[in-house]
Amino acid sequence: MQGGCSGYKIMETSISILIIYTGGTIGMVNDPVSGSLVPIDFRHISDQVPELRRFGFSLETVTFDPVIDSSDVSPDTWLKIAATIEENYSRFDGFVVLHGTDTMAYSASALSFMLQGLEKPVIFTGAQLPIGVLRTDGKENLITAIEIAAARENGLPVVPEVCIYFENKLLRGNRTIKYSAEHFNAFVSPNLPPLAEAGLQIRYNRNLIRYPTVRRPLTVSGKFDTAVAVLRLFPGLRRETVHAILGTAGVKGLILETYGTGNASTAAWFLEELRSFISMGGLVLNVTQCQAGSVEMGLYETSAGLMSAGVLSGRDITTEAAVTKMMILLGSGLPSEKVVALLVRPLCGEMS
User: Fold this and answer.
1) Which of 210, 129, 202 has the alpha carbon at shortest distance from 165?
2) Per-residue DSSP letters for 239-293?
3) Which parts of the chain sit beneath pLDDT 70?
4) Which residues are catalytic, by number?
5) 146-190, pLDDT tens digit by residue?
6) Is the bond preceding residue 160 a cis peptide, omega within 30 degrees?
7) pLDDT in tens, 134-146
8) What phi and psi values does residue 92 have, to the nearest 5 degrees?
């Protein structure tokens, strides 16, 4: 599944961080022989980022074998990451997950739902340029992610949740989307301000950070049902297309990306297709196509029909969080009415 822990003590201390390298651009360096980019040996990460030697805590690394391009990430990948954290949970004070940017928001969302009882930081980060490139953003992202994972106040972690750190901002993982394939500030959290911002100092917005109210052991919710589809509405969408998606064998849930505040066509055929799917036990969650804002079903007549058909409101949840949340709830084995109840209410800060 992955290699074992390799470690190097920066100096004697009580703070320890596990770096989990799954793959992605951040871990690439130039091969001096071929001249091409190859995955770094993270046992020697301090050769690439010598600044790590100045940290006052212990770092160890785990590298997935083989490393995974983020385009190939699947629920199996999420299970490997979660299992690595669970196996090492008692030994480390925080975790940094190095991951490709393309699907990082999906993975961070999934882990936020999977890690039940989490009381330690799990910080995802990566890079737009390989760590072996002169202008890389990977060094700063890695250094600050480690610092945030190690941050403690009164003996307790400052950020005990799953987050993404990228380009000076710490964002809640399940509120984050990738919005740029080119710029260093590749991620945004449209409906929730950053949990922290890194400048001359790291300033934490503690009123936004979720702290555990009931202490319980860490458990991993690791059963996924991937019988989920996503349908993005657009003018001219044909009934045959909708029917084909909803009629696909085994599909149990649909993420419906609607216009504005949750609006959709009022065409009789469209509502009939949704009603038919829902009447057979299917779930339909309404998520806005807009990067910012929330679904407010019933605000306009164009969403009233969805309500009458039994479509559920996703409020301001991202598509990435909606997909992973639905997969986990469908795989939970809970009664359908319980799944519906959990789907429409926040479980770990994924919606307002």
Assistant:
1) 202
2) HHHHHHHHTSTT--EEEEEEBTTTB----HHHHHHHHHHHHTT-EEEEEESSSSS
3) 1-13, 30, 32, 35-38, 40-48
4) 25
5) 999 999 999 999 999 999 999 999 999 999 999 988 888 889 999
6) no
7) 788 888 999 999 9
8) -125, 150
Which two three-digit tokens encode residue 39? 């995955």
Amino acid at 17: I
Query: What is the distance between the alpha carbons of residues 92 and 119, in angstroms, rounded to a whole number?
Result: 12
Single pTM value for the model: 0.92
